[in-house]
Amino acid sequence: MAPTLTPNQPPPTPTPVLKPGTSYTHAWQRCLAVAPEAFRDDRVLNLWGAAWQTDGRTLPATTPVDGTPIAGAPRLDGTTAQRAVRAALDQHRAWRHVPLPERRARIAATLDSLAEHRELLALLLVWEIGKPWRLALADVDRAIDGVRWYVDGIEPMLAGRAPLDGPVSNIASWNYPMSVLVHALLVQALAGNAVIAKTPTDGGVACLTLASALAAREGVPVTLVGGSGGELNRALVRAPEIGCVSFVGGRGAGAAVATAVADLGKRHILEQEGLNTWGIWGFSDWPQLTALIPKLFDYGKQRCTAYPRFVVQRSLFDSFLAAYLPAVATVRVGHPLAVTDPGDPPPELDFGPLINAAKAKELTDQVAEAVDRGAVPLHRGRPDEARFLPGQDTSAYVRPVTLLNPPPSSPLHHAEPFGPVDTIVLVDTEAELLAAMNASNGALVATLSTDDPATYGRLAPQIRAFKTGHGRPRSRGDRDELFGGFGASWRGAFVGGELLVRAVTRGPAGERLPGNFPEYQLMP
């Protein structure tokens, strides 16, 4: 019997349910059906020597979405990883002689297969790394569309160039398995190289395994191995068989890779974190900023091109807050697959969980410590139970937080939080503005909001970021857009467009690639 409502009493809020057909178990069964060679009942396999291997010790893993168990990466020991690298060299020596039309055909067939299984790949991203459905689909689509651009236009990019002497080794963070890692793998293979990928420790193993299986079926020479960075470093970074090392991750792990490749004189592409900043100076178009703020929280700012720091002219601080606070209050956080009606599409969210509960606790502790040491909390997002399943584990979820003036002793003052925490620093002069925007010794992107084009033209070149936007966010980019970083945010060759192909091929003798190298820096 339906409950009786008294006059003016709102109807009860429906209890959220998991959207039918989207459970992790359902996704796993689909993987077993699509690629039985790569999946077993309870684990994924490593791919090396052109075969799926049952080696490696699998550690327990859980999904950040609700803390339930999922498949973890099978971790190889260093000796087995070295065997995998030697096998990849054999594949490389054969693949580099495959005619370009055939390489293009195999990569194109791989893209068709990825497109066929687009929604399954996206569903795996939801469960493994907590991406909302919209962003998970976008990650898959960017990989497919981006590589198609290279397939269609690769001939002039390879004119006068040859594959490297050994395979390309890829060590990437967990946040963009498709649009960064799979995209890079397929372009590197299109250019004539065998490719090796290390499965990120924190997530993405099933998605990458499925993508690798689809590529391997088309004869693309892919190696996919799991393991700890310390255990596999000698094989994936230092091995003489490796022709190039491509790394995406934090500065701590990146420093060890940078030292190794510098000592060995090895071709390298090292994308590292930087504190990307957004400056506000002589600005008045506040409705424009208000509209942009929620978009800056996509995926909980777990992106290398996120903007976690606003540097604001003190005289504009009241206007900034009037534009910022209502916008940040609209940011939507919740379970990526919780719906109120089974027929509803997955919810429209800005972000779901962080990558794991440990990261959520670390970030929450950093915020508390910063406040204890003098930072002023301006905003704390409130939980909305209507966006979660009843009784689910929410330990990996962090609501948006905004702090004014984090103390210099706090990591939030000088480092990228990689989570939904904004910090604001107030400045009075242009010199202070530039010093605050350059706090991390180089960044990937930055933005300066100012009404005066001349002011932008004068200040933007002094901001130490590879890309600087005028009132608009900058991103990694796709297709012909170049990408790199200044200072400690990047080491080695720049990428994007034809630069990605140049970075993983040999050109004329004495060629100096655009990039940030110990001995020189060359802009495109």
From TrEMBL:
<dbReference type="GO" id="GO:0016620">
    <property type="term" value="F:oxidoreductase activity, acting on the aldehyde or oxo group of donors, NAD or NADP as acceptor"/>
</dbReference>
<feature type="region of interest" description="Disordered">
    <location>
        <begin position="1"/>
        <end position="21"/>
    </location>
</feature>
<protein>
    <submittedName>
        <fullName>Dehydrogenase</fullName>
    </submittedName>
</protein>
<dbReference type="InterPro" id="IPR016162">
    <property type="entry name" value="Ald_DH_N"/>
</dbReference>
<keyword id="KW-0560">Oxidoreductase</keyword>
<dbReference type="InterPro" id="IPR016161">
    <property type="entry name" value="Ald_DH/histidinol_DH"/>
</dbReference>
<dbReference type="InterPro" id="IPR016163">
    <property type="entry name" value="Ald_DH_C"/>
</dbReference>
<dbReference type="InterPro" id="IPR015590">
    <property type="entry name" value="Aldehyde_DH_dom"/>
</dbReference>
<feature type="compositionally biased region" description="Pro residues">
    <location>
        <begin position="8"/>
        <end position="17"/>
    </location>
</feature>
<feature type="domain" description="Aldehyde dehydrogenase">
    <location>
        <begin position="55"/>
        <end position="498"/>
    </location>
</feature>
<dbReference type="Pfam" id="PF00171">
    <property type="entry name" value="Aldedh"/>
</dbReference>
